Amino acid sequence: xxxxxxxxxxxxxxxxxxxxGERLVYTLKGISKAEFDDRDxxxxxxxxxxxxNEKRPGMxxxxxxxxxxxxxxxxxxxxxxGKRVAFLVTSSPVGMYFKLLDKAPKxxxxxxxxL
Length: 115
Fold this sequence. Notes:
This protein is mainly beta. It has a single domain, classed as CATH 2.40.50. The protein has 2 helices and 5 strands. The protein has helices spanning about 65-75, 110, and strands at about 25-35, 45-50, 60, 85-90, 95-100. The protein has a 5-stranded antiparallel β-sheet with strand order 3-2-1-4-5.
């Protein structure tokens, strides 16, 4: 039977639906912006959303993950399309999050290999 735990995630990927230390490898399909309510102020804020060939829904992109993408692939988001990216599910005092790794495996065989 298939693992159904990630089938009911909602509109965006959430690290809390994965195990700490789990690695996710996807191919970037597109980048968009979405409006959210700021948890602290209640004001509307825009966030970058990453979309992947292998997975729906998208993933909101943190500032640090955005900076890593810029370092890896340049500041023009069109250059990111088609690039393989790897995220590590990590915990912090405020909860679970996706940390973009500075390199992604080239093929599916290495994607399953431990870090």
